[in-house]
Write a structure and sequence with these properties.
With about 375 residues, this protein is of the alpha+beta class. It folds into 3 domains: about 150 residues; about 110 residues, 3-Layer(aba) Sandwich (Rossmann fold); about 80 residues, Sandwich (Immunoglobulin-like). Helices cover about 20% and strands about 30% of the residues. Strand 17 and strand 18 form a beta hairpin. Helix 1 runs antiparallel to helix 3 and helix 4 packs across helix 7. The longest helix has 13 residues. The termini are far apart.
């Protein structure tokens, strides 16, 4: 059916693709959790569309931790094979990572056919049934005109089990996270093996990881674990007390099992810090598609590198003499693309402190002393 909306000046064709993306989980200062989400992002002309939204914590409807039937419904709508969920032919492009409630806010757009092409236009921030384009429109984004065949091919591969959509099924023995904001429990899509000497710390870390939607198990080593179980893990995290001989034996066991995993050397027994290290290890997003690409320390300043305008949070953690965690929030604001120097201050720059830099989709960790 031809589109009702007439374009006086049709935009040039933009390329359309899908690629795996991450909303990094976190342990929040108040003890709460920010859930880890894996989803497929929309790649327009080679760049993630989400990166054009500098201060947005959101995921596309094509998330890997929802039932296949739900994914199918979203894909059918994006293919215009089902009615638009919102008035005026509007579709949700990005929504709340914790639930699907429009009241939390969503980025929506009109999606329509124009001959053989598919057009996305009139992007807006929407919190109820009707979009106010004048007040809440994203006037610098779109319209995008996609070639119909390329557009359909990318979306239809999700219906045939294309890569990156759904991970391995969760282990039914793992209780998983306590639940999302709507009271449901998200399936576990990643698993981490924790190896260390301090069981109490490992237990707290495992609980925190499960809280953000990452499965975690505790073991002394991996020597007698069957290969098929080892291949179910995505990362191994070592405590500081684990010796090199023991680490080498664990790596050898995973190598013999043919498991391609990430290894994390815990910097300090600080739960938010360890969660950040593991989240970074689980992120397999290609570097050119990451917003946060660098975190170093020079002359009592943190050097943060970002590829697109985005909100960045910089926090320092350390243990005091009584082994209590001290947290210093150093920066929280939107940075433009490029390299930025942020003063650490005397408390954050002292020895034994570690920096965690976060955007909505990535995280980096570095010692606070060069």
């Amino acid at each position: 059916m031809p589109a009702e909306h007439e374009h006086e000046h049709a935009p040039a064709h933009a390329s359309f693709a899908l690629a795996p993306a991450v909303r990094a989980g976190a342990v929040l200062a108040g003890g709460g959790y920010r859930v880890h989400r894996d989803f497929m992002d929309f790649i327009v002309d080679g760049h993630p569309l989400l990166h054009q939204l500098s201060d947005l914590d959101a995921v596309s409807p094509l998330a890997s931790d929802v039932p296949p039937a739900v994914i199918t419904g979203h894909v059918r709508r994006l293919l215009l094979e089902a009615d638009a969920p919102l008035p005026d032919g509007r579709y949700v492009i990005y929504g709340c990572p914790e639930c699907e409630d429009l009241g939390c806010g969503a980025v929506t757009a009109v999606i329509e056919r124009d001959g053989d092409d598919v057009v996305w236009r009139d992007f807006a921030w929407q919190t109820d049934e009707t979009a106010d384009l004048e007040r809440n429109g994203y006037h610098g984004i779109g319209p995008f005109r996609f070639r119909g065949e390329e557009y359909r091919t990318e979306l239809e591969r999700l219906l045939t089990g294309g890569p990156g959509v759904h991970g391995d099924s969760a282990d039914p023995a793992d209780p998983g996270p306590p639940g999302s904001a709507d009271g449901t429990t998200a399936p576990v899509r990643h698993r981490v093996l924790l190896i260390g000497a301090r069981v109490a710390i490992l237990a707290r870390l495992a609980a925190a990881l499960r809280g953000i939607g990452v499965g975690a198990d505790i073991a002394e080593d991996a020597t007698n674990v069957p290969p098929e179980e080892l291949r179910a893990y995505d990362a191994v995290a070592f405590g500081r007390a684990v010796g090199e001989e023991r680490r080498a034996a664990v790596r050898d066991a995973f190598r013999r099992a043919g498991a391609d995993i990430a290894y994390v050397d815990g910097l300090a027994p600080v739960i938010p810090l360890l969660v950040a290290q593991i989240e970074h290890a689980l992120d397999r997003t290609p570097l050119p598609r990451r917003r946060l690409t660098g975190l170093t320390v020079a002359d009592s300043e943190a050097v943060v590198e970002v590829t697109s305008a985005c909100r960045v949070q910089l926090v320092a953690y350390r243990l005091d003499r009584l082994h209590r965690t001290r947290t210093h929030e150093l920066f929280d604001g939107v940075l433009e693309p490029g390299s930025h120097r942020i003063p650490l201050g005397t408390r954050a720059a002292r020895g034994g402190s570690y920096l965690v830099a976060r955007t909505m989709d990535s995280v980096l960790v570095a010692p606070a002393t060069a």
